[in-house]
Amino acid sequence: MNKGEMKRLGDYIREVDVRNRDLEVTNLLGLSMTKQFRPSTSNIVGVDLSKYKIVHKDVFAFDTMSVIRVHKVPIAINLSKSPIIVSPAYITFECKDSNILNPNYLMMWFSRDEFDRYADFKSDAAVRGGYNWEELCDTPIYLPPIEQQQKIVSEYEAITRRIHLNEQIIAKLEETAQTLYRKMFVDGIDKENLPEGWRMGTLGEICCKIGSGATPKGGKECYINIGTSFIRSMNVLDLRFNHNELARITLQQAKILDSVSVESKDILLNITGVSVARCCMVPDSILPARVNQHVMIIRPNKIIYSYYLLLLLYFSKEKLLGISQSGSTREAITKSEIERFTILVPSMETVCNFDHKVSSLFQYEVLLEEENNKLNELHSLLLAKIGQ
Fold it and tell me: What pLDDT does residue 3 have?
């Protein structure tokens, strides 16, 4: 492999300032902390969009205002052939010569944790304050020959395509499970005239454990890189478990929280905050585990109820949100409210049939999620490798 050299980034990029003067572009996007474009949350009623900047293909947008606050550099590249517009406060720039500096390689460089740490350090140390265009231009970048850049980008994009394919399959699996649930337990079901063996009941009747946890003393300082998994609300998504933000605690701390230990096939439900009513099943790969006070463990007394309850809670999100917002200034659901929550209790035979149909779907989803976790680790390794 041909070795590269450390170069000053400003020698290979230039600022571009193309305004939306003719109002031809209407797709306004913002920047996320994951270094991607996202739908804008700004109120643009009455706003003059002719002052906004157009971002064409292979052009970058850079938010200089957020680095100190979030300790990351919000920066993204438009890989689409369709132009977008961004805030006039953003810096927009491009590579001077893509035959010397590949734009996708540059985006990989911006995606490295080391780059964010460098920018954070410079933000604190800069005389002008913050990490602005001048600091970005002074940033060193490892620049191998263009052939090597293209090879690195190809490897990275191959992994990215596989991750996206897995995500599409996972979405289809979840869609199929939801369709089966609606077909068996929603469509055509009259709660006043239920099939034989069916009845209305409460969640507490079919569960042997419902309870939330606590946070060990010490706050974030108590988290470690190895040990017992510690589940927080950010880990619980809609039918998904977020491994990326998983914290860990020591064995001693876990023993203190033994009363809220997590078991296989437990349902996790967020009971406070902006993510209230999101639910997922605990993945076996993170056990042993504990939860904090914002997450409720719901454990059915028969394991065949697990997938049924998971989908039931998912489709009950609006009702649960209604409970959380009643009589409180903060969205929250209590244990007693969960125990009293009215549910449809189908016959054991029907639940067994449903469990048989959907368990294989979710088991396959778990395998794909585990593969994506490994692929994301490989992503990180490739990003770290380009700086060596």
Answer: 63
